[in-house]
Write a structure and sequence with these properties.
With 121 residues, the chain is mainly beta. It is built from no helices and 12 strands. Strands 2, 4, 5, 6, 7, 10, 11 and 12 form an 8-stranded mixed beta sheet that branches. Strands 1-3-9-8 form a 4-stranded antiparallel beta sheet, with no helix packed on it. Strand 10 and strand 11 form a beta hairpin.
Length: 121
């Protein structure tokens, strides 16, 4: 099995920073980038940031210029640097990553359990 675990969430004042980490473990042959998502109450889950194996990134308009996604495929890690945090960023953040368990397996997305980010005003 493959498991993703997020860490780095917490309570921070508006304007502060947090760095979220996502660690994939288990039967992993290869991990290829990943993404961070969030879902506010009553809203659709949104892609906050994504990165592919070539390092190409995408961001939600609400976080452009403030958040930076990065990955270290060799270490099975995906990161989200969050700067200039706003109260609207308060939500649980979830990590996802495409993983294949053998060299001949199809790629599949796995999800973590989430880490809470709370930004006070």
């Amino acid at each position: 099995q493959v498991h993703l675990t997020e860490s780095g969430g917490g309570l921070v004042q508006a304007g502060g920073s947090l760095r979220l980490s996502c660690t994939a473990s288990g039967n992993i042959f290869q991990i290829n980038g990943g993404g961070w998502h969030r879902q506010a109450p009553g809203k659709q889950r949104e892609l906050v940031a994504g990165i592919n194996g070539e390092g190409s990134t995408v961001y939600a308009d609400s976080v452009k210029g403030r958040f930076t996604i990065s990955s270290d495929n060799a270490k099975n890690m995906v990161y989200l640097q969050m700067n200039s945090l706003k109260p609207d960023d308060t939500v649980v953040y979830y990590c996802s990553a495409p993983v294949r368990t053998t060299a001949w397996s199809n790629w599949r997305d796995y999800w973590g359990q989430g880490t809470q980010v709370t930004v006070s005003s």
